[in-house]
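Example 9 (inverse folding). The structure is encoded as follows.
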């Protein structure tokens, strides 16, 4: 799709501003450690058709088996920001202000947390791909720019997101998808909603 370095960093930062990773259940020493449950069902299910992870008691029991705190999806665990359900600037701010050290998720995957465990970002995490943004000089420059200029990040993310949702392998150029579909999704409603957010 011809992503530029700027678009790449903006999409990673925006994509990791909202939401979190899920992988609370520790499968070490279980049958799922040798034969990963996510190789079983069509939707990474331990029991095909259950839409859940391990339901055999390994990760919770009853209605909570394989759900909520018993979820194992990515195997990584934690939010990237302090408010993962609200747009914010923690992703870049924390990348620049914290020292990130290797850690393990409850599942056992490699991820990163702050060296200072009393930091305001101590309850957040980073993936290796996130930390690599500050190890690469080209990407580091963009991370520094977005940490210093939130309006620039907002604008660049909006442009990159528009490109992401309006292009595909079959529609590689600007407006190809819109021309083919006959309409374009508009996000103007978000501006009106933001006026009501606290």
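The amino acid assigned to each position is listed next.
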């Amino acid at each position: 799709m011809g992503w530029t370095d700027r678009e790449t960093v903006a999409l990673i930062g925006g994509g990791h501003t909202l939401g979190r990773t899920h992988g609370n259940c520790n499968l070490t020493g279980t049958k799922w450690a040798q034969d990963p449950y996510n190789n079983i069902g069509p939707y990474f299910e331990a029991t095909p058709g259950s839409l859940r992870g391990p339901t055999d008691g390994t990760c919770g029991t009853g209605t909570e088996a394989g759900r909520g705190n018993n979820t194992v999806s990515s195997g990584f665990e934690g939010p990237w920001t302090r408010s993962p359900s609200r747009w914010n600037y923690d992703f870049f701010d924390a990348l620049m202000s914290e020292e990130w050290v290797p850690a393990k998720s409850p599942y056992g995957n490699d991820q990163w947390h702050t060296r200072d465990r009393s930091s305001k970002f101590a309850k957040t995490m980073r993936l290796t791909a996130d930390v690599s943004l500050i190890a690469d000089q080209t990407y580091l420059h963009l991370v520094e720019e977005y940490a210093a200029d939130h309006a620039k990040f907002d604008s660049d993310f909006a442009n990159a997101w528009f490109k992401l949702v309006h292009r595909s392998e079959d529609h590689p150029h600007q407006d190809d998808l819109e021309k083919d579909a006959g309409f374009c999704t508009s996000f103007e409603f978000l501006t009106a909603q933001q006026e009501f957010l606290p």
